[in-house]
Amino acid sequence: MILVTGAAGFIGFHLCKRLVADGYEVVGIDNLNAYYDPSLKEARLAILAGFKGFTFHRLDMCDYEGLRAIVDRHRPARICHLAAQAGVRYSLTNPFAYQKSNNEGFLSVLEIARCCRVENFVYASSSSVYGGNAKLPFSESDRVDNPLSLYAATKRSNELTAHCYSRLYGLNCSGLRFFTVYGPWGRPDMALFLFTKAILEGRPIEVFNGGKMKRNFTYVDDIVDGILLTLSHPLPSEIYNIGNSRAEDLMDFIGEIETNLGTKAAIDFRPMQAGDVPATIADIDKLSRLGYAPKTNIDAGVKRFVQWYRDYYRV
């Protein structure tokens, strides 16, 4: 039995789908908040509901007693904690949402993992923790004490809290620093979704830092491969980068979207945004030693997203 929080979210949905397809019993938890359109989350859940072995509970992670009751009932051997308030930009204007979900909610799940003696606790961190680091690629051994957003600070706080629990209580904890995840059923606040929607609607897309950006765009199926590896390798207090094997120029990524839509984008170039960084490039050697090998390039990944978007929104 595996418990997945944030099961109705983008990555959580794909992870749950893979786990049940592989024969695991999965308990999913999500509060279906309105950070973005809840109907997209409900549509993901409707698909998961069709799988034998998937059970869902609607709950906020800060509800410790409710969460404890679910865990006592199902007794999961492993927990994958993906639920969080996402987004760098949103954290600039809604800081308390991050304190509550990413700090208080994280501690609730971690404390329950300790009390119930789960075999492995895997949780979502972010490449944002690297903040203002100038050295590329980013390595897990780099210092991460220079966050550029509250979102990044809460994710680093999660890593430190998990480290304490691992050292104090012997809890196996692995933190996953995700690098720019994309793919079908993706979040509407992320670049691929925003760009695709705007281009199809004939609106200009906003591109920051004059387009001089690099990202480790990582297809969601490759992310799920990495999560499954860490779930099956319980170790005390580990941190892993999960990214693609190469970084892409943002303008090349936009070019792939244009190719798949058959339409040129009107681009509104903007200066760098507060909290953003010009490049995120992952050193994935550490996770590769467990067998991680991302397979999906942006040409295939963007094509799959655009096909999904057209089907889902009937464009």
Number of helices: 10
What is the averaged pLDDT score? 95
Shape: globular
Domain count: the total is 1
Which regions have little confidence, pLDDT < 50, spanning 5+ residues? Answer: none
**Backbone CA Rg:** 19 Å
Strand content: 15-25%
Q: H/E element string?
A: EHEHEHEHEHEEHEEEHEEHEEHH
User: What is the rounded distance between the termini?
Assistant: 39 Å
Biggest sheet: strand arrangement: 3-2-1-4-5-6-11
Tell me which CATH architecture applies here. Answer: 3-Layer(aba) Sandwich
What's the CATH C level? Alpha Beta
Percent of residues in helices: 40-55%
CATH superfamily heading? NAD(P)-binding Rossmann-like Domain
How is the biggest beta sheet arranged?
7 strands, parallel
Description:
It is a single chain. The protein has 315 residues and is α/β, with parallel strands linked by helices. It has a single domain, classed as Rossmann fold (3-Layer(aba) Sandwich), CATH 3.40.50.720. The chain has ten helices and 14 strands. The strands form four sheets. A seven-stranded parallel beta sheet has the order 3-2-1-4-5-6-11, sandwiched between helices. Strands 12-9-14 form a three-stranded mixed beta sheet. Strand 5 (120-126), helix 5 and strand 6 form a beta-alpha-beta unit. The radius of gyration is 19 Å and the shape is globular. It starts with a strand and ends with a helix. The model has no long low-confidence stretch (mean pLDDT 95).
